[in-house]
Fold this protein.
Amino acid sequence: MPLDFPAPPPLGLYVHLPWCVRKCPYCDFNSHPLGDHDPPEQAYVSALLAEAAARAAQVAGRPVCSVFIGGGTPSLFSPAAIARLLDGLAERFMLAPGAEITLEANPGTLDAARLSGFRSAGINRLSLGVQSFNDRCLRAIGRIHDVQQALDAVRAARRAGFDNLNLDLMFGLPGQDLQEAEEDLATAIALAPEHLSWYQLTIEPGTTFAVRPPTLPDEALCWAMFAQGRSRLAAAGYTQYEVSAYARPGYRCQHNENYWCYGDYVGLGAGAHGKVTDHCTGRIVRSRNLRSPARYMDCVRRGGGYDEQWQVGGQDAVFEFMLNALRLTEGFRMALFRERTGLPERVLEGRLQTPVAQGLVSVQAGRVRPTALGRRFLDDLTACFLP
């Protein structure tokens, strides 16, 4: 049965650059270590732009509000390659004026010239994967940079003209104590980024840490790190608007916020995922590209076969929407559920009764909001909406 959408949702572009210097032991993303070699950037950008041309027809006439270049380590690519990529995307898609364009970067791959080149290429938001300001912790999680390189990267980014800066920071690291976690956050706040992505290290299946797990702080200590850190961030003027996202006023990540509000995004590159709503036919279509960069590039060159696609059913749409929207501290309007899933609000109202009774979520004046208890036990809350 077709879903009923009043209009298409906002649209973003996600571009995956899958190479890194070496694979971090906690990383479960589609990333491939290069060692001392350079990425095949010209061939890969050509493949990305060929895929972009093929996907553009799906979203013809729809403005693109944000572009996010993730990885891997996108900052391994040269500024010239990033400029070619962005120019090519602008030719194929209708980029909205002032669209947020983010590049993920590793401090160990940056210098002043490279940062200036990225800014000139059109990157207007930089996300630095710092993870910690403690050299022992950085070594424990396999990062290629040290504290001084992280500090230098932030300062060089400011000199290059980046006025929208995110720092990725983790807590609950191997051997980390409460004071070290607080010192990490204090250093980050002193650098005055506009945005902080601050989250707990978790052990994911298929990673090196899953095979050889390190000794991590226990649950009580991690909760203390989180509780004290959240208070410190609030006192410094950062608003927590999502489980792990903190921003100064006006600097929420537009691209990620679109994910959490069940917006659309075209995914380009090896292993990239996409979600596109066709409000005319009442369909939500997801796509997933081949993970192998070599196979992806080869299949794109041959004109297809680089992805799989499937339609999202109504019950799956309910779960996917709630899985994302319940991450938002402010929750969501019931009307947004109807707009983004194409389903009537009564479908959700019946499913909300149990989590409301359990004190995990509140419904007031047409807004659904996770409670403090619901945010702490988010997996239990989202499980209430499994198909």
In short: Residues 80 and 121 are 7 Å apart (CA to CA).
